[in-house]
Amino acid sequence: MPNPIQLQSIRTVGELFANATIHDVESAIYPPKRSLLSRVHLYQGDITTIEVDAIVNAANSTLQGGGGVDGAIHEAAGPALAKACRELYPGRSPCPTGDAKITPGFQLPSKHVIHTVGPRWSASSDTQAMASQLASCYRKSLQLAVDNNCKSIAFPLISTAIYGYPIVEATQIALKETRVFLEGNNQLDHVVFVIFTGRDGDQKVYEKFIPYYFPLGPEDATESVEPLSSAKGSVDE
């Protein structure tokens, strides 16, 4: 297994602003909040190598593994993960779309895996209902992390691969739900958005929209943002 990726090595939103990877916007959707700039991260790479308290698996309804991120997580975690998932949903009972369940991480660097089932995109289906289901994936995953004393969580791009959810809409849902959750909860210190290796286009979408949900404040435009490695262990809200 590759060496685990330490959270301290993954750039925060504040650091992305500081090195001009992302840029402030004039018409941000949410107001500036300096403390959030060190709580949200963006990373392109393999989610199975990140050393956080929980990684999120974009699972299918059986929770038994599949292709893409789902298959990679099951492979890296070992067969005990599939067994744990079978115990969550014995027989043929599927996990509902928008729901989330948690298991140990087994052989992964992460302590836990949170399995969530995103919607399959269809232009002929109810787009509002699908957006609500995808938003639920993020809300329930974040809440499960807090309920299980996790301080850090890493998300893949739920439903955007073989499930076909448009990346622009999916990104905005992910950012909105994370912003709202972190506003009301200081138990979760770090959220990492993980882009699959080589998906530069997906990363650019995140870089474009992050400033609308996590903008710079007036004081941040003229001074550097404190890097994670020197930040306090607790978050002051």
Automatic annotation (TrEMBL):
Residue ranges annotated for the Macro domain, each copy included: 27-214
Pfam families the record matches: Macro
Annotated SMART domains: A1pp
Tree of life domain: Eukaryota
Identification of the protein by name: Macro domain-containing protein
Organism from which the protein derives: Suillus luteus UH-Slu-Lm8-n1
